[in-house]
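[step 3/7] inverse_fold.run input=structure_tokens len=438
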């Protein structure tokens, strides 16, 4: 049988004033409760919470609340515990141990900017930037104020090189570090200095540094060549750009997209008439040096760059070579009743190029009155990835631009459909009358 509730509950609050308040709590009997507040008790007056034994950790909620019910709802007011303050309403699952907020492997990270040495070199770089560039003596005097050379490190040198402007100060500091032989020279020091010189269009100095690297056996990486070639293009030194691009290949390095973009722009400005056989041999040489798994993405990238540079014919040549060397084995699928163009493994530029090639091929088949299937499909793929979504949008836009007879499938996202009749009608309406098949 449940214990009867006493008519008066004494609750002690933290405030020191003694007041009496009446609260009416709705209940069956509408009992009145009297609260009496007095001076707070000291922490020593409050009973300590006993440690929870192992056998109580997995106890039920009712068992854990039993002691609370026996004291708070007791008929003897004197045995009630004193409440010191209102606790925060935090719920804890009684059946599970509370997880720590941070794992043991997680440590506090300090930014390098808080390092005393880094701060010293930041201030040093600022002093160099404030120096009068026209006064060689003043700048060299500032250089001698460099923080203790014993603390000079790779990170400190890079911090200063990246902080100095304009390029003249970067170059002077680089030469000073090299002359003093304070730290072994690395490729990255040259790369950072060259990038600063590129802003000033100082190709002559950049090329001089490149020859220094070769003479001193310092490795030139992809970034080094990319900086040299892009600077040559900026300075309209197209022959130099081609020279270093060819040198890059001889060193066995694969150009990145920035380098290819720069060199393609150079070729476009030179208006060189390169034969298809030359392109074929160069393409074969590039792909032979590339890992198998990157050949198709690399070819996609080249086609994208060509389209971005409005070199559409070259993009079609690259797609043909990629198909010839087996980079796109599933691009075309044919059955008796349908033909499918599958561009799911292609980039946007490569997919649009493949679509143009396919439409030209289909137009040729119609003109020759050769057999066609009843249905033609083009697949861009589906999925939540933003690339698949972007490819689908770009492909649909290009279809509208070509006024091609393909329409989005109502049943399958990323699939475009055209019938044989639609295709024949489209080809005939887009050809001069003398070329229309009868």
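[step 3/7] decode complete -> sequence:
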């Amino acid at each position: 049988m449940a214990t009867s509730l006493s008519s008066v509950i004494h609750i002690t609050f933290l405030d020191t004033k003694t007041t009496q308040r009446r609260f009416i709590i709705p209940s069956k009997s509408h009992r009145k409760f009297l609260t009496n507040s007095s001076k707070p008790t000291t922490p020593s007056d409050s009973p300590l919470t006993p440690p929870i034994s192992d056998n109580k950790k997995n106890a039920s909620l009712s068992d854990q609340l039993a002691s609370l019910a026996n004291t708070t709802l007791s008929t003897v007011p004197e045995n009630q515990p004193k409440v010191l303050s209102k606790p925060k309403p935090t719920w804890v699952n009684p059946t599970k141990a509370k997880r720590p907020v941070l794992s043991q492997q997680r440590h506090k990270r300090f930014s390098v900017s808080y390092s005393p040495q880094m701060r010293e070199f930041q201030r040093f770089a600022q002093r160099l930037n404030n120096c009068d560039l026209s006064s060689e003596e003043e700048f060299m005097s500032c250089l001698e104020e460099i923080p203790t050379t014993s603390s000079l490190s790779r990170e400190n040198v890079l911090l200063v090189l990246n902080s100095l402007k304009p390029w003249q100060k970067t170059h002077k500091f680089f030469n000073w570090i090299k002359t003093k032989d304070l730290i072994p020279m690395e490729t990255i020091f040259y790369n950072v200095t060259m990038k600063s010189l590129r802003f000033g269009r100082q190709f002559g100095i950049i090329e001089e540094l490149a020859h220094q690297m070769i003479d001193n056996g310092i490795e030139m990486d992809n970034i080094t060549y990319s900086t040299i070639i892009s600077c040559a293009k900026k300075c309209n030194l197209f022959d130099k750009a081609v020279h270093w691009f060819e040198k890059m290949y001889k060193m066995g390095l694969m150009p990145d997209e920035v380098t290819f973009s720069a060199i393609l722009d150079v070729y476009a400005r030179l208006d060189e008439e390169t034969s298809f056989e030359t392109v074929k041999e160069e393409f074969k040489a590039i792909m032979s040096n590339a890992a198998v798994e990157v050949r198709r993405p690399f070819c996609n990238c080249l086609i994208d760059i060509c389209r971005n540079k409005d070199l559409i014919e070259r993009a079609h040549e690259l797609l043909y070579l990629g198909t010839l060397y087996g980079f796109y084995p599933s691009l075309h699928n044919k059955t008796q009743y349908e033909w499918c163009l599958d561009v799911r493994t292609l980039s946007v530029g490569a997919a649009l190029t493949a679509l143009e090639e396919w439409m030209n091929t289909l137009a040729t088949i119609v003109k020759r009155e050769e057999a066609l299937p009843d249905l033609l499909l083009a697949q861009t793929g589906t999925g939540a990835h933003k690339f698949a979504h972007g490819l689908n949008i770009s492909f649909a836009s290009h279809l509208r631009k070509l006024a091609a007879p393909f329409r989005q499938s109502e049943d399958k996202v990323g699939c475009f459909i055209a019938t044989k009749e639609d295709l024949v009608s489209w080809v005939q309406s887009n050809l001069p009358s003398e070329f229309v098949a009868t």
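[step 4/7] annotate
Residues 115-278 form a domain with the Serine Threonine Protein Phosphatase 5, Tetratricopeptide repeat fold (CATH 1.25.40.10).
The first strand starts at residue 20 and ends at 24.
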